[in-house]
Design goal:
Layout: H1 3-15, H2 19-26, E1 39-44, H3 65-77, E2 83-86, H4 88-96, E3 104-108, H5 130-135, E4 140-148, H6 154-169, E5 174-183, E6 190-191, H7 195-206, E7 215-220, H8 225-229, E8 236-239, H9 247-252, H10 255-258, E9 263-268, H11 270-273, H12 280-288
Helix pairs in contact: 2-4
C-alpha cells in the first residue's frame, strides 16, 4: 500500500462513508468455511483493546495504522491465507482497499476488557454485534471469553457471550469463542496455559448459549492437545498468541495438533504480522507450510 492509497482511504472516510457499505455489498464472498480446507486466518483485533505490543521490544508496534494495513494486505495476499479477524475500523479499512475479496471474515465483538484495566476481566461487547456482522456479509463473530474463578466480574462476560452465541446462531453465523481459564490477582489478568485449564475452558465455552450448532472454539496450543481437542466435538482453531523469538520452533510443535480430527485451522495475529525478523511473507509461508493441503 502506498501513501497515495492511504490518502484515498482518508478521503473516502471523510467524504463518502457510505463507500464502506458499498464495498461490503460488492465483496466477492468465499464458499462456506468448511469447504475451504484448512483455515489460515490473520487476526488484527488487538488495537481496539489497547493491546498494541508485539513482543517485549515493540510496545507500540500496532499503533501505526499504515504499517499495520501494509502488513495485513501482504499477509492476506499470500497463498493459503483464507481469512481475517478484526474490529470494524480495521475490517472497513481492508474493505475500502479491496483486500477482503474471497476471504472468510470474522468480526471481533467484545473489546471492552481493555489491557491493564481494573475491569479487564469484565469484557464488554463494544465492537461488532450479530446484526451488523450479518448485514456486512461476514461469516461470523469472535468473542474473547476469559474465565477467572477468583473474580465475580467473569459472570457478566459469560452471560454476554452466551447471548452473542445465540444471536449469531439465529442468523446461521459462526460464533468463534476464545476461552481461557484466567486469574485476576493484583489487578492483572493472566491466562493459565496448562492442559487442564484449556480442557476446562473449552468445556465451559462449548456450553454457552441456547445452541452450539454454530459454535467454534479458538484455543491455545498447550501440552497434550489431543486431550484438549478431545474435550469437545466442536470445530476448533489454534491460536497463535504472543510473538516468540523461537517462533519457527514453536509453530513446528503444532504439526500433531493440526492432524486432530476437529482442528480445522489456525488464527494467528502478531506472530505473523510482526515476526522477530520482520519478514511477514516468510512467517505466513512457514505457518501455511504446516498445512500441506492448504495451497492448491
Amino acid at each position: 500500500m502506498s501513501e497515495v492509497r492511504l490518502a484515498d482511504l482518508h478521503r473516502l472516510r471523510m467524504e463518502r462513508p457510505e463507500a464502506i457499505a458499498e464495498a461490503a455489498a460488492a465483496r466477492r464472498r468465499p464458499g462456506p468455511p468448511h469447504t475451504l480446507g484448512p483455515l489460515v486466518i490473520v487476526a488484527a483485533d488487538h488495537p481496539a483493546r489497547g493491546a498494541l505490543a508485539a513482543g517485549r521490544s515493540r510496545p507500540m508496534a500496532m499503533a501505526d495504522r499504515q504499517d499495520l494495513l501494509e502488513r495485513l494486505c501482504l499477509a492476506l495476499s499470500r497463498p493459503g491465507v483464507n481469512g481475517v479477524l478484526g474490529t470494524p475500523d480495521v475490517l472497513e479499512d481492508l474493505l475500502l482497499l479491496g483486500a477482503l475479496d474471497d476471504k472468510v471474515v470474522f468480526g471481533s465483538m467484545n473489546r471492552g476488557g481493555l489491557a491493564g484495566a481494573a475491569w479487564e476481566i469484565d469484557d464488554r461487547f463494544t465492537a461488532y454485534d450479530a446484526a451488523t456482522i450479518a448485514a456486512m456479509g461476514f461469516q461470523g463473530g469472535k468473542m474473547l471469553t476469559r474465565i477467572a474463578l477468583d473474580d465475580p466480574n467473569t459472570a457478566p462476560t459469560l452471560q454476554a457471550c452466551a447471548a452473542a452465541v445465540g444471536d449469531l446462531a439465529s442468523r446461521r453465523l459462526i460464533a468463534m469463542v476464545e476461552p481461557f481459564m484466567s486469574t485476576s490477582a493484583d489487578g492483572r489478568v493472566k491466562n493459565v496455559l496448562t492442559t487442564e485449564a484449556a480442557i476446562k475452558a473449552s468445556s465451559i465455552a462449548a456450553g454457552l448459549g441456547p445452541t452450539s450448532a454454530y459454535t467454534w472454539l479458538k484455543v491455545p496450543v498447550v501440552d497434550d492437545m489431543e486431550k484438549v481437542a478431545g474435550a469437545t466435538t466442536l470445530p476448533t482453531l489454534l491460536l497463535g498468541g504472543e510473538v516468540r523469538e523461537d517462533q519457527d520452533a514453536y509453530f513446528a510443535t503444532w504439526r500433531s495438533a493440526l492432524e486432530l480430527p476437529n482442528v480445522v485451522g489456525a488464527v494467528v495475529g502478531r506472530s505473523l504480522l510482526y515476526p522477530p525478523d520482520d519478514d511477514v511473507a516468510r512467517a505466513v509461508d512457514t505457518l501455511v507450510g504446516l498445512f500441506p493441503s492448504a495451497v492448491a
